[in-house]
Specification:
By secondary structure, the protein is α+β, with helices and mostly antiparallel strands. The chain is built from 3 helices and 13 strands; from the N terminus they run αββββββαβββββββα. The chain starts with a helix and ends with a helix. About 30% of the residues are buried.
Length: about 240
């Protein structure tokens, strides 16, 4: 009887952790999303800024259009199913990104290609387990450890995420490599109303081994659940997107 009770408790905890991650993912993503974002790349001796517009539909489709600076203006990233494409207006060419490039830096930031186009799924590609509770930005949070499933093609050894207990906001994520070393941290520095719900307004990504280096991402605006046709996310549309 005790074994059955313990097994039931473990199963309940696993399901609960997964459901919390699912709610957090749905809370931030919506059925569709589109918005304008400012990214500031900070280094010990310099900094620069990117502006971009983003569209997404579920977990299968996303598009990112770089609007500034002038050198990168018109560059587009597209995720459609399992394929990720990059349109480079300077050479008028579309390039399909191989899986080996997903862990590389995106546009010189501290984000990877995978971070921006979300090739991996926090819900489907990981096993989830509770690791405790904590408080961030004055908000009680579930601390959940996400371990990749054996069949999942993800770049991390594990991810630990802090999820706000009230509004299911992801307030922090710690990324570990396959050797178990902490490599980078994403944390929310400001939260507020966005698209009619509480969401992080500004997030910082910082590698743990590079002092004075970080990438700051801030939303200018966001619209959730507005209809977007699947055909919008096409390699043809990449070339004409403005």
């Amino acid at each position: 009887m005790l074994v059955i009770q313990l097994f039931g408790l473990v199963a309940f905890s696993q399901d609960s952790a997964t459901e919390i991650v699912r709610k957090a993912d749905q809370h931030a993503r919506g059925k569709t999303s589109q918005g304008d974002v400012i990214i500031r790349i900070v280094r010990p001796t310099w900094s620069r800024e990117l502006t971009m517009r983003m569209w997404a539909k579920g977990t299968d489709y996303s598009m990112i259009l770089i609007q500034s600076p002038a050198k990168e203006k018109g560059t587009v990233f597209l995720k459609r199913g399992k394929e990720v494409w990059n349109w480079l207006p300077s050479i008028e060419r579309s390039i399909k990104l191989p899986p080996s490039m997903m862990s590389q830096s995106w546009m010189g930031t501290d984000f990877t290609n995978d971070d921006l186009v979300k090739e991996s799924s926090a819900v489907n590609d990981y096993v989830h387990g509770f690791s405790g509770v904590d408080t961030l930005l004055g908000r009680p949070c579930h601390v959940i450890t996400m371990t990749p499933k054996p069949e999942s093609a993800v770049v991390w050894g594990k991810v630990i995420v802090w999820i706000d207990q009230k509004d299911f906001m992801e307030l922090r994520m710690d990324f570990y490599d396959e050797e178990g070393q902490l490599t980078s941290i994403i944390r929310a520095t400001e939260v507020g109303l966005l698209a009619g719900r509480m969401l992080p307004l500004t997030m910082e990504m910082a590698p743990v081994d590079k002092k004075g280096q970080k990438t700051i991402m801030s939303y200018k605006n966001l619209v959730l659940d507005a209809p977007i046709d699947d055909a919008f996310f096409s390699t043809t549309n990449m070339k004409t997107l403005r």
